[in-house]
Amino acid sequence: MKKAFKVLGIIVFVAIIGFSMAACSSSPPSPSPKWANVVYYGEEERQLEGTSWVSTLQMTNTRTGASEVIKAEFRRGGRLVTNLSDNASWQRKNDIVEFVVADGQAYFEGIYYHENQKILGTLYFSSGTKQDTTFTLIDSSITTASSSLQNNAQSPAPAQAASSAPSAAQRLQEAFSSPLQSGTYSLSGTQAKMSITAIAKSGILSYTNRQGRVSTGSYQIDGSRMTIQAEGYTFVYTITSQTSFSGNGETWVRTGF
Question: Highest mean pLDDT range out of 50-54, 56-60, 97-101, 186-190?
Fold first, then answer.
């Protein structure tokens, strides 16, 4: 009887040791996708839609398990096409760009710099780690169209180049043309914006104030001086470039069409 209990005890001890060793040798579970339920819906004013970007940062492809450089294409309605996974979405508010990739395993937040066509930010992972990265523009239907227009404008026909004096139509166009491009201008850090669709040296604009209330106003341009009347007030700004104007401690920048 004592011998039977001794043998049983040895068997139980060996079983416990074997279970403990198996538990220790198993790999830790992968972290749950922290942003699996986050869905974005793109941008209100078309600016990044239709562009493709690449980052030097590499991530694991959830389809193949291989480590790849991140490639992303912004599409309408917040659809983000990447080489890493099937489920991804994006949004842009002013110059802040956010997107979720790798089926919710990673989240990116960065700033879009119009001047050099880069997005600088940080990629956060479900494991708790993070890494700074830069996305560079590699293809854009918007940029291509704009470049074609600029090339056409800068390459006049030989007959036009040979003409020394401007025509009456050209003088009339210059008299009414504006140094400011048409489009939507936003005040950084707020939801205030102005929409000027048919730019001339004077006209009507749509104005959204900081509280989100929409109204109409008027503008008049004299040289680099721009006077705006909206909501019963008069504001005077200085046009600093074809896509920006400033004054009253504010800087307005063109952010879309």
Answer: 97-101
Within 10 Å of residue 108's Cβ, how many Cβ atoms? 24
CATH of domain 51-139: 2.40.128.80
- DSSP E strand boundaries for the chain: 51-60, 67-74, 80-82, 89-93, 96-101, 106-113, 118-125, 130-140, 183-187, 193-196, 202-208, 214-222, 225-230, 233-241, 244-247, 250-256
Distance between CA 84 and CA 55 in Å, rounded? Answer: 12
Q: What is the pLDDT of residues 7-54, one digit of tens each?
A: 445 444 444 444 444 444 444 566 888 998 899 999 988 889 888 888
SS (H, E, C) 179-235: CCCCEEEEECCCCCEEEECCCCCEEEEEEECCCCCEEEEEEEEECCEEEEEECCEEE
The structural domains of the chain, with segments of one domain joined by +, span 51-139, 176-256
What is the token pair recorded at 74?
């912004």
Q: 């940080």: which residue's tokens?
A: 122
- Assess contact for 238 and 179: CB atoms under 8 A: no
CA distance 50 to 91: 13
CATH says 176-256 is which class?
A: mainly beta
Query: Do 80 and 99 contact (CB within 8 A), yes or no?
Result: yes
Torsion angles phi and psi, residue 77, rounded to 5:
75, 15
